[in-house]
Write a structure and sequence with these properties.
Distance between the termini: 39 Å
Strand order of the largest sheet: 1-2-3-4-5-6-9-10
Helix content: 40-55%
Number of helices: 14
Radius of gyration: 23 Å
Shape: globular
Order of helices and strands: HEHEHEHEHHEHEEEHEHHEHHHH
Structural class: alpha/beta
Length: about 375
């Protein structure tokens, strides 16, 4: 995948004073009082560069709070006038785009549920032609890098050059620690394809619970993300949507004070040590691949044995045993259990593929 997109650097469309971009505000603009009080408190804390608010909220099931809609846009306007901060909101239809721009919204974002549908993204792209506005695109709900890339191609095709990516994690097929699995490797792969597109971390939607926000925020900063979008509400426990993952403006400020913002530049001595450690990693990776190759050799023998005894490839009890035991082994070695689980899912699926291939071969 090698796509060239014309993009403007982040510094050309917003001045962050050299700091990571910070977008903050409530999940939803619920009432004028609620939104303005939250916006004022965020502005007072001094960490935000852009205010956010959910105006239209795509919900899984009908009957949930789906946002105030157009009546909330004047509240955003007023917050902008009072605080001097730019305002942003999610758009999912051409009508949303038109209304947001008419009310002076400074930046738009495309949500994960929209990114997953190329027809919807193309409709948004068509409505953005001739417009000069920053557009952030969240990763799709499912871990599909091509869909994410395709959304950028469509929006860029409309002439938008102020583009940013929002990494908000991916839906879990089973119960997990985080509401949405970060799957950091997908964001890193995206960044390797588009190094000039700012990567914004969304720890709120990854976490689902405020107690995980700090660790996810730190991880994003450790990976040199260009900014964060975090939900903040004047009284999170009374929020009409996503109450568990929001922080008060003051609590958000306190959390950010505890985050280590890493240096991107380093001197010659540091580079020498970095090269030495990377050389060790290269050697270990080679050994790791050799071990995986040896494992696949045993898998091939296992496939032949199953074939010769007319036994099915997939044994669910074995699958469950591998899934449970490897995660436990990983924990004992101070590895993230979720990472180990994902790794062995891939390894086991490759083992099944190899055994299926062997099963369809004639014995020598």
């Amino acid at each position: 995948m090698n796509v060239q997109l014309k993009t403007d650097p982040l510094s050309s469309w917003i001045d962050t004073g050299g700091k990571p971009l910070m977008i903050a505000g409530p999940c939803s603009a619920e009432t004028e009082e609620q939104y303005l009080e939250t916006a004022r408190a965020i502005a007072k804390e001094g960490y935000a560069h852009i205010l956010r608010a959910g105006v239209w909220k795509p919900r899984t099931r009908p009957g949930s709070f789906e946002g105030v809609g157009e009546p909330a846009l004047p509240w955003l306007q007023k917050a902008k006038e009072e605080t001097g901060l730019p305002i942003s909101c999610e758009v999912a239809t051409p009508e949303h785009v038109e209304l947001a721009l008419n009310y002076g919204v400074d930046a738009l974002w495309v949500g994960a549920r929209t990114t997953v549908n190329p027809f919807n993204v193309q409709d948004l792209a068509d409505s953005l032609k001739g417009v000069d506005v920053p557009v952030f695109i969240k990763n799709p709900v499912n871990p599909d890098l091509a869909l994410w890339v395709g959304a950028f191609e469509r929006i860029a095709g409309a002439g938008i050059t102020k583009l940013g990516a929002i990494h908000r994690g991916f839906s879990n097929a089973q119960e997990a620690k985080y509401r949405n699995s970060p799957m950091w490797q997908i964001a890193v792969q995206f960044k390797s394809i588009f190094p000039d597109i700012p990567m914004i971390g969304d720890p709120s939607h990854m976490a689902g619970k405020r107690e995980y926000l700090a660790e996810l925020t730190q991880r994003a900063m450790d990976l040199n993300y260009d900014g964060l979008i975090i939900e903040s509400h004047r009284n999170p426990d009374e929020a009409w949507s996503d109450a568990a993952q929001q922080l008060t403006p003051v609590a958000l400020g306190e959390m950010l004070k505890g985050i280590e913002f890493r240096n991107e530049s380093y001197g010659a001595d540091f580079q020498d040590e970095l090269d030495r450690l990377r050389g060790r990693l290269d050697n270990l990776d080679r050994e790791l691949l050799e071990v995986i190759a040896a494992r696949m050799s045993v898998v091939e023998q296992l496939g032949e044995y199953k074939r010769d005894n007319n036994v099915a490839v997939l044994q669910l009890d074995r699958w469950n045993k591998v899934h449970d035991s490897r995660a436990k082994w990983g924990q004992e070695l101070n590895l993230y259990s979720e990472t180990v689980e994902e790794l062995f899912k891939l390894i086991h699926m490759e083992s099944i593929r190899k055994q299926t291939e062997v099963m369809n071969q004639q014995p020598a």
